[in-house]
Amino acid sequence: MLKNYRLCFEFWGLILFLIIMIPNFIYFVFPPLHDIFQTNSITETIDKAAFVSQIFMIISLCFLKNIKSKKIAFTPLIIIAVCFCLLYFASFLVYYAGIINGFVILGLTIPPCLAFLFFALDRKNYIALIFILFFTICHLIYAVVNFII
């Protein structure tokens, strides 16, 4: 499996990461009035695991390339990834509008993970999938335990 991968810069992996980070950059500069995320987490160990897996996810998306992947194009998987990005942005707008409920929290949690997942599937980056799945599980536990239950 590893023989199909090479270390090289994956431009579109970085672009996806930066696109997903746009709402986060806005959040850090202009926090919403009713920000529920400024609290102490009760899932500190899970949060640390999520952080580490997120770093490996980003590295694998941006610097590992499967030589069997085709040139980037608007495939169904990429279109799905774009749709999840848009859903994530919509969730941020709803959150900034002051609507905070379980659906919004899940909208801030699941769509970015699924955007990464579908991008990795399109790029045949199965190594990144491992880190994406682990990050998604940790991120979901964090959101559900800290803000939904």
From TrEMBL:
Domain of life: Bacteria
Protein name: Uncharacterized protein
